[in-house]
Amino acid sequence: MIVKNEENVIDRCLNSVKNVVDEIIIVDTGSTDNTVAKAENLGAIVYKFKWIDDFAEARNYSFSKATKDYILWLDADDILEDDDVKKLEELKVNLDQSVDSVMMNYVLQVDKYGNSIYSLKRNRLVKRSRNFRWIGYVHEYLEVYGNIIQSDINIVHKKDKEYTSRNLEIYEKKISSGIELSIRDILYYGNELYDNGRYDDAIEQYVKFIKTKQGWVEDVKTACYKLADCYMYKNDKENELKYILKSFEYDVPRADFCCRLAYKFLEENKLEVAIYWYRLALNSAPKDASASLINHEVYTYLPWIQLCVCYSRMGNMEEAYICNEMAAKYKEDDEYVKNNREFLKDKVNLSLGE
């Protein structure tokens, strides 16, 4: 792990894994709180690293201090739940030594029922002898190859700190010093501009990224989605629609784009067209092996609850009720589900009685 001023979460993270890992290596990049003391109290070996605005360098340094056959990396605001600790224990016992990397689910957000809303896959457990390297000043990635296997182990991200402009500042320092951004960094620089509300600047970077024609297809689709967002915030509906549709140039329609397009038709009261796109979202599925961000609700709850609205507006109360009950399978106590039930109850009974 690399850390800085994580005293509020370091105990939570290390306590969740300390009984399953064989050593804990912490690289501190300049903490001024009790992070180091807390880590050492939980058995961690702590090294100091002078921060140089480069996450990859810090992570590579942390990897250089590991001594065991495999390295598991975490962030301070990550945890493993008990069930996933058990899965990791089983993996330790049964892992074939020919495996170079194990991908795990990175759960970025859960709903109140504990269901994953956003997740992606990450190479989380890697063979030390392969000397895999981290790449990227910001939004660094681990360059992994060889025998890579999938696991169903979840690592849950429990973000504790407020969002800052730190990453944007790092990118702009690099640019001002004359460093040319990589193709991948162009996308992530765009994301930082977007997150800081600089939509025109973000649009410029996303378009630049797409025009390289060298980006990973999932990243290109992400750029299209972010462009649609930027134009939505600028109230430019024509260009918003343009980039929703442009995503279809690269792959079969992804559920998030289907739901977004469906909602535009719902707003225009083109209900049959909206139903078509919501149904298409339900009939699609995320790519299991993909490292791209997955919004699980656009494949499940969201299209069902919106189909309820569509059918209700069309006067088909029975179908609206069925769709609402399908949404309830994912969120039983959801306010929209409960309100829809109340609204539809008498109408469905009346219709059936006729």
UniProtKB/TrEMBL annotation:
Protein name: Glycosyltransferase family 2 protein
Listed SUPFAM superfamilies: Nucleotide-diphospho-sugar transferases, TPR-like
Domain Glycosyltransferase 2-like: 1-94
